[in-house]
Amino acid sequence: MCGIVGYTGKKDASLMLIEGLKRLEYRGYDSAGIALLHNNRITRKRCKGKIAKLEQLLSEEPLEGSTALGHTRWATHGKPSDENAHPHSDCTGEIVIVHNGIIENYIKLKKELQEKGHRFGSETDTEIIAHLIEEELKKTDILKAIFSAVGKLEGSYALGILYSGAPGEVFAARKDSPLIMGLAEDGNFIASDIPAVLPYTKKIIYLEDNEVAHLTADSVTVYGPDRKKVKKEVSVINWDPVMAEKQGYKHFMLKEIFEQQQAIGDTLLGRLDREKNEVVFEKFSFSKDYLKKIRRIFMVACGTAYHACLIGKFLLEDHLKIPCEVDIGSEFRYRNPPIDRDTLVIAISQSGETADTLAAVREAKSRGARTAAICNVVGSSITRESEGIIYTHAGPEIGVASTKAFTTQLVALYLLTIYLGRIRNMLDEKEALELTQQLTFLPLKVKKIIDSQHENIMNISHKYFKKHDFLYLGRNINYPIALEGALKLKEISYIHAEGYPAGEMKHGPIALIEEGMPVVVIATECDVYDKILSNIEEVRARDGAVVALATEGDDKIKRLADDIIYIPETLTLFSPLLNIIPLQLIAYHIARLRGCDIDQPRNLAKSVTVE
Ligand code: AGP
Fold this sequence. Notes:
Strand content: 15-25%
Oligomer: single chain
Bound molecules: 2-deoxy-2-amino glucitol-6-phosphate
Largest sheet: 8 strands, antiparallel
Number of strands: 27
Low-confidence stretches: none
Mean pLDDT: 94
């Protein structure tokens, strides 16, 4: 996610904001910028790259001023570049803004503004907000102009705004994207997150959705959606700066597991056209004729992303009858894959920089295939070398163990299935409506699992954290979740764990089972549920300990499992997204109990950019 810091007060702002941005670096970013309001004039400095580069620019040309905005950008719309870096301005340069979030209707608004003569300098969704305020300012004062402008926005935003006609003042607004205000002795701050202001103050006000704030050096006034002043509570934060980077979570991985509700929602945002009842993508630039003609799809990835591909195979073959092969990146690039112009190769990658996956994309292109990517990093190598892109909007994933990237990759695959299904007439409008409705229920179901099962999962983790071997079993579309659950455990707790198709037990792994060995079985409601119960019986007959994932209300499982984690009911094809949540938490808590270095596990890197 992007990082915002703003200040107005008695002190010089630029160095303070740079330090504040550095304390938000953990959020991940690809460019940075700052704007200062001094002598009724706003000056901006911004650049692609790290904050050090911005510091270099400021050392060459220092900026004066005690009213300022700073920003670190995590690109969602528009590649990382100087022009796309925030802060952005209107045509006049008198209005400057920084933004964190996603504006769903920016294309429509941008077109309307261009028709009114507005000229744009970036590809971002953010820039349109400055021009909207400029347009409204022709009719009213800055505060009302801000209210009118944000009233036209659909999507999420946390905004910092400067107006050269309002010296010494900072404005802020938020909807669905966090923004706080810090009350210090010698001025007032806005920020995306507490770490940015913690060295200056522990007194925080949380801006709520649809509120607008007006800050001066010695006052903070907040207005509600009815544009009337609201009285805000001042909270006192007792975190230390390091804890604050993780928003109070002990590890980034846990924070990112908890962020999945938001990340799934953000990845759906703007992609479900409810009028036409269709899925819309912003950069999946294949013609409908081509998509109708595709005879075979290859999916290629590594690690967790490979497990997402395996689920994608079920979706494309079961629902669209498109033959789909799945390859591990390092295998695909060294075998002679049967691909041609009628093959679409889809790479899945959180980082967009995994060497084996990137090489597979290049191999596919060299053989005439067309390529697409599902990726979490805008402008990354794999996206630059792919023709069509579906971005996951998970925000930066800091923990080495991939969690929210995985569930948002599944969301992208669900959207792609509906998109292709409608184009290829494999899904009628009613079926597509049912799927899109069920998709929108997923974020709350993820929240329900965490709220209702987290304590149970912690107890289960405590019961088995000293074990040396785990087996994970799943069938059909949940077999890849058995693989992913095993990978999560082994990569952060260093316990040996294997994922297996449950039906394979008799072909080998059953020999592994000894008394008390934990076997995690994905037994949520599905067509092969009874088969899975038999597999559980096989485990119990050999005194294995069964940890079962079961659908809420399933009483049958009680007589078979030693421990049960209940999962809200959903369509089978969506069950992998819900089933992985408890498995992520089991891996996390077992690793925590074993004292492992969860965010940076031994021998592993977040992005494997070498062979
Ligand atoms: C997953 O938890 C691992 N960190 C690893 O397997 C990862 O999924 C793999 O390296 C692929 O990375 P990518 O998604 O960035 O391409």
